[in-house]
């Protein structure tokens, strides 16, 4: 299974590191990285497989991905040309999420699907905006489009539902999906102001892009849309999500939650009730015996109400680039298994 | 995929009810029940598939499983003969767990494996005592032996690790694996004595067999052994597990846990530390921010520390026969998918 990696920021680099670290797994599954395509830091292709350790070493030294000249790989000038002309089995798409247009990921994914290539993506923006179009594209070509990395970072949610809950109908979903917001609310819970907590989150480097996409709930809403479409087959649009971020959360709000015996969390909620569909992202007070209430810091989680076995809760203690990269690898392994 | 059900107590009956309720799933996966074998309530076999609704109706009326004469199925006298002579693809083994000898499940499973049949079992006793022998048998014949129902009831644990955490090394395991003990401790947490809580648990009908296997921690220990072998490849025996049950837990212990800001739970623990292997089942005070501390009543859960993505926690709100039966169905579907 020859992998072309498109985009090599923190998640892409973590993916390469994981390929190196878990060499026994990738070797036994015959997974090899044949290309890395970036738009500003060079492109490299080697049909026999790139030495990932060397790639990372030279990238660290030069900031470029095409510094591996001595390895005999092809150096290319155009990332899109690689996508369209070179040979690979699965595209791993890691470009930054755009929550307004979904580009360039949408176009990149479409091009790969049109060539009959499998696609694995971490792109929450593109998947939330173009889920139907992209899934349709994968179905038409009979290839896989997997997107575990778009929600819950490294913690398996879609694979849990696919393999662990077959035949179950998910009737309600609650999630803490944005690690940055959860971190900020946790720090505020220990007595810091919003601004202090925000600075602390930035120091921890968790917001690569515009942090307001996180803070204002848009990133969580995009994830909620993907869940609604993928797990609950709902035909909805992000415009239908009632979105409230945490920008205006005050110490008073945090204290009020404590007084009420709970914790303030940014909760994604999807519920079909007698009034119709309730799909929202917003601060909620979760009582301390709520399965998601104990999630602190960058941990994330989801609670599913199923028709067969009641509630199932899954959570993970971390949600950084390394964990997200693991979901990309899981999806590649899943395609390999068929 | 033709299913032979061996044993039809509460889990077996729930399995039949699930086949009926989720007819769309079983039909699309071509799963049909061709036989039910019991040692005291009759046996029935129909190679074209048994009408499960009729089976359940007549079983409710007569207490017998061979009351479906008018359907034209074969009525047999001997459960073992069915296992050894009749045609089926997968055995679903649901006889009561025996924690000392693992019988009759061990022999039943072996016979099916020797005939090259896939096996799905809910038998914690047999799997904890004969895991190596039975897995070896399945490998030799190139068939599947799945046992999701033996631990965490309906909540997927082994499938989570298999499909959701490929390549991850589980470094530590903590679990609340026995729903009955968790229920008793929860009721005690609300002010009841052990005896009152025990009676309440029995009223709720959760202990089919000798309740002391639950109370004294043996059932949780058997589950812990299966986890240790299956998820952590440890070569251990139940005799190596340090087992303390909840028989002697007092109101004072519960109050002490509260004073210390935590909850008393029966915790299964597997950890490899500098002193070697620590594998135990016993009452522990979990602090309120422990991911398993919020589990109340019959809920169950597990916390895995992995080498790649840190901690992953999965839990379920219920652990009765219905949920256990769902794990059997999940395993059958998983074998069908291949």
From TrEMBL, chains A, B:
Q: In this entry, which stretches build a coiled coil?
A: none
Residues reported in the UniProt entry to bind L-homoserine: 208
- Quick check: keyword Amino-acid biosynthesis in the entry? yes
Keywords for this entry?
Answer: Amino-acid biosynthesis, Methionine biosynthesis, NADP, Oxidoreductase, Threonine biosynthesis
Can you give the residue ranges of the Aspartate/homoserine dehydrogenase NAD-binding domain? 7-148
Record-listed E.C. numbers = 1.1.1.3
Pfam families xref list: Homoserine_dh (PF00742), NAD_binding_3 (PF03447)
Cross-referenced PANTHER family, in alphabetical order?
HOMOSERINE DEHYDROGENASE
Q: Report domain Homoserine dehydrogenase catalytic positions.
A: 156-333
The residues that the entry says bind NADP(+) are 7-12
Organismal lineage: Bacteria, Thermotogati, Synergistota, Synergistia, Synergistales
InterPro entries in the cross-refs: Asp/hSer_DH_NAD-bd, HDH_cat, HDH_short, NAD(P)-bd_dom_sf
A Gene Ontology molecular-function term?
A: NADP binding
Q: Which organism is it from?
A: Acetomicrobium mobile (strain ATCC BAA-54 / DSM 13181 / JCM 12221 / NGA)
Q: Identify the pathway.
A: Amino-acid biosynthesis; L-threonine biosynthesis; L-threonine from L-aspartate: step 3/5; Amino-acid biosynthesis; L-methionine biosynthesis via de novo pathway; L-homoserine from L-aspartate: step 3/3
Keyword match Oxidoreductase: yes
Q: Which residues form the active site?
A: 223 (proton donor)
Family, similarity comment: Belongs to the homoserine dehydrogenase family.
Q: Which GO terms describe its biological process?
A: methionine biosynthetic process; threonine biosynthetic process
Q: What is this protein called?
A: Homoserine dehydrogenase
């Amino acid at each position: 299974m020859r992998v072309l990696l498109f985009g090599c920021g923190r998640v892409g680099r973590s993916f390469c590191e994981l390929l190196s670290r878990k060499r026994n797994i990738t070797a036994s599954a015959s997974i090899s990285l044949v290309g890395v395509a970036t738009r500003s830091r060079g492109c490299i292709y080697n049909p026999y497989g790139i030495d990932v350790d060397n790639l990372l070493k030279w990238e660290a030294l030069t900031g470029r991905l095409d510094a591996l000249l001595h390895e005999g790989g092809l150096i290319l000038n155009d990332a899109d040309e690689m996508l369209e002309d070179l040979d690979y089995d699965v595209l791993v798409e890691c470009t930054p999420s755009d929550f307004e247009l979904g580009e360039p990921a949408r176009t990149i994914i479409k091009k790969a699907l049109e060539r009959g290539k499998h696609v694995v993506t971490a792109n929450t923006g593109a998947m939330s905006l173009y889920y139907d179009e992209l899934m349709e594209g994968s179905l038409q070509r009979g290839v896989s489009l997997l997107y575990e990395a778009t929600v819950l970072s490294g913690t398996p949610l879609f694979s849990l539902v696919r393999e662990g809950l077959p035949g179950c109908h998910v009737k309600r979903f609650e999630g803490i999906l944005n690690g940055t917001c959860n971190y900020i609310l946790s720090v505020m819970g220990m007595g810091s102001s919003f601004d202090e907590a925000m600075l602390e989150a930035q120091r921890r480097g968790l917001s690569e892009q515009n942090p307001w996409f996180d803070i204002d709930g848009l990133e969580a809403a995009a994830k909620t849309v993907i869940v609604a479409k993928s797990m609950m087959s709902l035909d909805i649009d992000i415009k239908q999500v009632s979105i409230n971020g945490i920008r205006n959360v005050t110490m008073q709000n945090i204290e009020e939650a404590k007084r009420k015996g709970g914790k303030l969390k940014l909760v994604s909620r999807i519920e079909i009730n007698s009034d119709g569909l309730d799909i929202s992202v917003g601060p909620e007070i979760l009582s301390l015996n709520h399965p998601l209430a104990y999630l602190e810091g960058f941990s994330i989680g989801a609670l599913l109400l199923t028709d067969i076995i009641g509630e199932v809760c899954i959570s993970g203690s971390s949600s950084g680039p390394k964990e997200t990269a693991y979901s990309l690898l899981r999806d590649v392994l899943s395609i390999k298994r068929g």
